[in-house]
Amino acid sequence: SQGKFNATSYDVMTIVIISLQTFAGMWINGFMASVLCIACLKKKSFNSNEKILLFLGCCRFCYLSITWVYFFLSILYPWCLYVHPIPQLLSAIQSFLNFSNLWVSACLCVFYCIKIANFRHIIFIYLKGKIDRIVPWLLLGSAFFSLVISILVYNIIDEAHSNNSNSTGQGNFWKLNIKMDEHFFPLFFLSGTGFAIAFMAVIFSALLLLFSLWRHKCRMQTNSGKNLSMDAHVKAMKSILSFSFIYSVNFACLILTLIYATKK
C-alpha cells in the first residue's frame, strides 16, 4: 500500500549519516542564535552585525530542519510527497529559507565591507554613516524578495504538477510524471538570478575590502606595531572569503543541476 514502506539497511544508514550532519548544523546555528539573544538581553540592544547574524542563524536552522524533513519523507514515506500540496509547500518554504540565507549572507559581506574598508568617496562615506539604519531595511528587503520568490516557486511547481500529473483515487494522490519543460525553466532562471546577484555582491565586497587592505598595508609598512584596523581587515576578509567559497560551490551545483536536468 502507499502508506507502507520497507526501508533497507542502506536507507537507514543514509538517514543516520544525514541526520547527524543536519543536527550538527542545527546545533551550531541554534547555539549562535541563543548566544546572540542572551547578549541582547544583557545589553538591552542589538548591534547591526548581531541582527544580521541572528537572522542568518535562524534561517539556517530552519532551512536545515525543513530539508531534513523533506529528506526523511522522501526516504521512508515517499507517498507523502505525492499528496497535494505537500511538495509545493516544502519547495516554497525551502526556497524562502534558502534565498533568505543567500541574501542575508550577502548583506553581512556588504556590511563588513562598508564598516571596515576605508575609502574617501562621498557615497561610501554616506553609507558608512547610515549603515546601521540601512541594515534593518536590508533584512526586511531580503525577507520580502525571498517571500516573493517562494510564492512564484509554489505557483510554478503547482502548475507543473497539474499539467504533468495524473490524479488517482479521489485526487488526493498523484502519480507524478514530471519532466523538465517550460514550467521549470522560470524556476531555474529565478534561482540563477538570485544566486548571481548575491554572488556578485559578495565578490564585489571582497574585492573592495582586499583593495582597502592592500592600500592600508602600504601605509602601515613603516609602523611595526600591531594595528587594530589591519586585524579588522584580515578578520573580515576571512569571513568574506569563506562566504565566497560557499557561494561558488552552490552556484556550480546550480549550473550542473540545470545542465543535467535539460538532458533528461
From TrEMBL:
GO terms for cellular component: membrane. It is found in: Membrane. It is a multi-pass membrane protein. One of its GO terms (molecular function) is bitter taste receptor activity. Its main location: membrane. The chain crosses the membrane at residues 12-41, 53-77, 89-114, 134-157, 184-211, 240-261. Keywords: G-protein coupled receptor, Membrane, Receptor, Sensory transduction, Taste, Transducer, Transmembrane, Transmembrane helix. Belongs to the G-protein coupled receptor T2R family. This is Taste receptor type 2. It comes from Dromas ardeola. The lineage of its organism: Eukaryota, Metazoa, Chordata, Craniata, Vertebrata.
